[in-house]
Write a structure and sequence with these properties.
The protein has 1 helix and 26 strands. The protein is mainly beta and 349 residues long. Strand 18 and strand 19 form a beta hairpin.
Length: 349
């Protein structure tokens, strides 16, 4: 009787331990899925390109006109800057252009409309700014235009739809979510519908098919996971899926908190937006691809240069690039091109 009891007890104990270990394994696998930010199946290759010919800097601005990319302003760790450069991707050449005539600054915004570039807002080291300037690439000249319609600020986003510029969010002592439209033909600013999500600074914005998308950023120390698209015709915002693992579906199992960040870059190649670099408690090199058609994200190969924040990103001739930025000790002038569907290689840099 005692032997039978002991045998039965051992059998029950073994079954309980098996079930416990199985549950632990399932739980560990689920956690691994939700937090994995180093997907072995990630594709994409970064190749070093024609380095930016100005001094290394962070929090510069960029705009593109007729397949020519303009990069300027920013902070080199000692001074705020006013120089501007034009990049001809076809020849790999950087050309020095007329200096920005306004106050030297970082964390400004820029957009292009009607064949001209527009630059404004930012921080000069003492105060926040709201002045705006127009650049004519034909004459290589600048002129001041109407001040930004909202408050002085830095860390805003800017984009262009139908040859009108838009500036919104940022920080003026308060985190912001307002949106303003600039009409270059009348030199006027008009307030539009505020971002429907959280207030934020250091977000990113991109445009696809005349719709503007705003994502990432920070508000009072919280990295934000809401994602919004703006329809300028309807003057309305619509929420997209969250960029963290919050749904009961499996499409976001690998997101974790790995997409959230501030001070990142974004560029669009064809129908995919690529988000890279930034800060999430430390500087990042991770890169994610956003499929605009199905509203999902996929991990790609991280930037193969030094992790950084405050860089600029741009797409030209259907090719995507990242340059400048900083980490805790350096400001950068390297230029990297991303090939999203090529296998990663260690032999080309």
């Amino acid at each position: 009787m005692t032997i039978q009891f002991i045998a039965m007890h051992k059998k029950v104990f073994s079954t309980v331990m098996y079930l416990f270990l199985l549950a632990a394994l399932v739980s560990l696998n689920a956690c691994s899925k939700a937090s994995n930010d180093d997907d072995d199946d990630a594709t994409g290759n970064w190749k070093r390109s024609y380095e930016f010919e100005g001094v290394g800097r962070t929090e510069a601005v960029t705009f593109t006109i007729a397949n020519k990319v303009f990069v300027g302003l920013g902070y080199d760790g000692t001074d705020r800057l006013v120089d501007f450069w034009e990049f001809d991707q076809a020849t790999g050449t950087w050309y020095k252009r007329a200096d920005f005539p306004g106050v030297a600054r970082n964390s400004a915004v820029a957009f292009a409309a009607n064949g001209k570039g527009y630059v404004g807002t930012g921080y000069d080291g003492i105060k926040k700014l709201k002045d705006f300037w127009e650049y004519d690439p034909v004459t290589n000249t600048w002129k001041q235009v109407a001040d930004f319609g909202g408050s002085e600020r830095y860390g805003a986003v800017a984009f262009t739809i139908a040859d009108k510029g838009y500036v919104g969010t940022g920080y003026d002592g308060n985190y912001l979510k307002d949106l303003w439209q600039y009409d270059p033909l009348t030199d006027t600013w008009t307030q539009k519908a505020s971002l429907a999500g959280s207030k934020r600074t250091d977000a990113v914005a991109f445009v696809h098919n005349d719709k503007a998308y705003v994502v990432t950023g920070i508000n009072n120390g919280s990295y934000l996971n809401d994602f919004w698209v703006y329809d300028a015709t309807a003057n309305a915002w619509t929420e997209k899926r969250k960029i963290t693992s919050v749904s009961d579906e499996d499409y976001d199992d690998y997101y974790g908190n790995n997409i959230t960040r501030s001070n990142a870059v974004v560029f669009v190649i064809n129908d995919i937006a690529y988000l890279s670099t930034g800060n999430m408690s430390s500087v990042l090199n991770t890169t994610w691809a956003y499929n605009i058609a199905n509203d999902t994200w996929e991990a790609k190969t991280g930037l193969e240069g030094t992790a950084r924040e405050g860089a600029v990103g741009f797409a030209v001739n259907s090719r995507g690039f990242v340059t400048t930025g900083h980490n805790s000790s350096s400001r950068f002038d390297d230029l990297w091109e991303f090939f999203p569907f090529t296998e990663q290689s260690d032999d080309d840099n």
